[in-house]
Structures are given as C-alpha cells and as structure tokens.
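Cross-posting from the modeling subforum.

Setting up a comparison between two proteins and wanted a second pair of eyes on the formatting. Protein 1 (sequence, then structure tokens):
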Amino acid sequence: MSNSRAGNADALMAFVSTLQAEAGLEKPRSLPPVHLWNPEHCGDIGLEIRKDGSWWQDGVRFSRQKLVRLFSTILRRDPDGYYLVTPHEKVVIRVEDAPFVATRLDRTEEGGEVALAATTNVGDVVLVGKEHPLRVETDDETGEPSTYVMIRNGLEARLARPPYYELVGWANEDPETRMMSVDSCGTRFELGRTV
C-alpha cells in the first residue's frame, strides 16, 4: 500500500472516530454475533420501529435512548421479517420503513477521493461505499424519493430530510443523461434524473 493510500485510510478512520464520538460512542461498539444465534421463535411482544426511527412497545414509546441503542445491536433481518435475537430468545419486531434513520451525513475529501459518512439515530457510523451502498426508492403514487444506506447485515437507514438535502447538494448531474449521482469511497451512486 502506498504512503498516500495509507495516509488516506488513516484520515478516514480518524474522520469516522470523530463522528462516533459525536454520536456518543467513545469507541466503536462490538456487535453480538446474532447471525450465529438460532433460538426457538418466542413470539410477539408488540415491538415496533416507526418510520421516524422511534421504538415502541404496545403503543408506548421507549424513553431511554440507551435501551434503544442496546436493542439495536441485537436486531436481525431474516427472510420473513425483523427480530430481536439473543442466544435464548427471538421476538418479532415490526419495522414501518427501515430500522434506522440516518440523522447526519458528513463529507470529507482526502487525496482527491470523496467519502461520505452516515450517522444513524442509534449511533452507527458507516462510510458510504461498496460495503455500505446507497439506494434510492421512488414512491409510485407521490413520485417522492427515499434514500437508504446499508448499515449492516440487511439493516438499512433511511436518510432523514436534512441529510438527504445535503446529499442532493453534493450531487453532480451528467449533462447528457441528466442523471444525478454522488461519489463516495471510489463508488458512484445514482440518485435519479432531473426533470
């Protein structure tokens, strides 16, 4: 690896560490190996994550953010839905849209390469790129786009309005195709065509 690439990687890791500290994580959290746990299905206890990223049980909103952050670490998406999983239990959790909301999007440029970092409502920070791609979904009825970033293992975050507008502000338009796109960590992501 060349010195400039190593320097860029170090700068990106420092960038992510700063964002994690700002999100309330002094060090990157290690996630439990939920993909290895296969307990018996234990049922439904009325858990849901609403479109705004708030967590609820039987119509009562979780008031402790630390509990939400803890539960977010044991969230898993299976082919038949979302679950909170421990080595001994597996309970259904309904997800209205995406399980997380990207509340912040930051941009840095090192050595001519742009990197975007998404921070979620539960403190996850990821660099948008091949491992954490962006995707845009357009509502058939309203035509309104929703932009998502992959956080981990099939769990996405929907970009809240402010980070979405920042993303659009950083986008470039191809004059021939009128396609808007952004680059991050060496990968180009199409956002949609201008009208």
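Protein 2 (same layout):
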Amino acid sequence: MSEANLKVQLQADMKSSMKTGDKSRLLVIRTMLAAIKQIEVDERIELDDDRIVGVLDKMLKQRRESISQFTSAGRDDLIAIEEAELVIIKEFLPEAFSEKEIAALIELAISNTGATSIKDMGKVMGILKPQLQGRADVGKVSQLIKHKLT
C-alpha cells in the first residue's frame, strides 16, 4: 500500500514549521503524526487518507470537548490553546459541508433507508457517518436527524 498523501503533507508541513520556528504549530503537527503512527504500529498497517481523516476528526472532537469543559471551568488561557490547535487540525481535513449540504445528505439517507421514526436512526447514521467523517460534527448531525425523525 502506498503512503497516504495526507501523511506526506503533514510531514512536509512539520519540516516547514521546523524551518520557520513555529513551535506551537510544530507541536500540533507532531501530535497528529504521533497519533497516526501509534495506530500504524498497533495495527501493523499503513493508514490511508480516509483513516487519517478519522484520526484527525477524533482529535478535533477531543479539542471541542476540552473547550466546553474549560469554558465551564472559566479557564480562558486553556481555551485559547485548544482553539489554536483546532484551527491547525482543521487545515488538514477536507472542506466542511455547508448546512444545506448536510440537510440534503440527511434527506437522501432518510429516503434511502425508508426511515420513519427515531427507531430507524441507526440505519440513517450508518449511511451518513462515513460521508461526514472529517467534514461535519457528527453529534450535531445526529441532533438534526433526531429532530427530523420525531
């Protein structure tokens, strides 16, 4: 299996950050590469771009959760750090879907599965989750689906 383009891009950006002396950016990129490498070592595989997007999406979700916890604790200093990391991680993810695109995907998934009630939510999410990976907050989309099906 050939090396993933996203991983190559991350490595190139790491070198660029080293040359320019951007330590905060370098730290975030190294963290992303370490998370990717950890999975590759554990599973003894080379990750493709789709799987790397999944890893970065998970990191994004962790940052969002941290921000909400730091907000409730009143830790503005830590919120700023997490938000800066969020921006850097987003640079390596595909362009996010607009609200119209998300609504259209939800409608399509509901019609394809024949979902009529909240009991069918798993079917709809099963279709949407791979499409939304790294391009939308799956939690928010889940709320939109619940609203549609109730």
